[in-house]
Amino acid sequence: MRMSSKIVFALMILPGLALSLDNDDKVLIHGPEVDLTLGELRQALLTVPEDMRKAMLVQPKKIRDIMDTTYMVKVAAERAKQKGLDKDPVVAAKIWNYTQNLLAGAEIKDVQKKLIGEDADYEAAARELYLMEKDKYRKPVEYEASHILLTAENGEDDETLRARLKQIRAEIEQGKITFAEAAEKYSKDPTTASKGGYLKRFEEGRMVKPFEEALKVMKPGDISQPVKTSYGMHLIWLQDKVPASVRPFEEVKAELIKKVKAKAENDIKVDYWLKVKNDPAAKVDEALFESFVAKPVLLDKP
Quick one: how many helices (H) and strands (E) in the chain? Predict the structure, then answer.
């Protein structure tokens, strides 16, 4: 199994604290350089995102993949320590930065959980948002149609094309030929001719204006009079029309609840960081900062 870079990085910096179980110290892999314990495998699995973890825990092969990956990472990490690479300023800085961000994220989630609560009901807020943003959930008219396209050849003018289409229309209405057969025989649209002129289902706004203007006044089953567009002259058969509508609240409820929940959590996060940043008790040594900015040295050696 290919591991994502985020998961591999998480495995490289396994947390030192985890829930301890009776058999955590039992060795899963005895290696020449390091051992891997059952507790370490449990820690590795806890670093996998929860939605992926649930599916993973019922698939022994995936658990084995995590075990093997964790062991390999631990071997490499031990070799790095033996070389003193953990003391490298950049590596040490990245470990420090990862730890700080991980703990800060945990702190934010804890504050959000306490302020919002486990059983927060977002439905009322979701309904309010639905009413405010109702236009976003409007579904335009949908059409299902076929067409026959004629284009000018050998100097033909619009009247000639219009007359030919009227003749084709008359033959269709008289039952001499079906619309699909006529499209295959006469249409110059290379994409749809072999499919009987079928355009599939499409929303209002997808076709050129004259084509859609014709559709607006048609009823399912109607065949239009010739319609001129920039592509040529069309005969349109409207098979179905679904009126414009608004998606009901119940259909978008889960999406809206997710949205208002995310906003509530983000508002708490923004407020938290602003309070930390603007805390009057936090004083910047401006002189020290300015001297550093004037000559920012990050390492002892350039």
Answer: 11, 8
How confident is the model at residue 20, as a pLDDT?
55
Residue 274 to residue 265: CA distance in whole angstroms = 14
List domains and CATH numbers for the chain. Answer: 1-87 (no CATH), 89-136+248-302 (no CATH), 141-243 (3.10.50.40)
> How far is residue 11's CA from residue 77's CA, in Å, rounded to a whole number?
10
Instruction: Tell me the two tokens of residue 269.
Output: 């996060």
**Are 10 and 52 spatial neighbours (Cβ–Cβ below 8 Å)?**
no
Kindly report the three-state secondary structure assignment for every residue of 225-294: CCEEECCEEEEEEEEEEECCEECCHHHHHHHHHHHHHHHHHHHHHHHHHHHHHCCCCCCCCHHHHHHHHH
Question: Rounded distance, CA 68 to CA 51, Å?
Answer: 21
Helix (H) / strand (E) element for 147: namely strand 142-150
Most distant pair of Cα atoms in the chain: their distance: 94
Cα atoms found within 13 Å of the Cα of residue 20, Cβ hemisphere only: 4
179, 197 in Cβ contact below 8 A?
yes
Spell out the SS3 assignment of 181-196: HHHHHHCCCCCCHHHC
The mean pLDDT values, 10 residues at a time, for the chain of 302 residues are 47 45 89 95 92 90 95 97 95 96 96 88 93 92 97 87 96 96 96 95 94 96 96 96 94 94 96 96 95 89 55
What's the CA gap between 98 and 263, in Å, rounded? 26
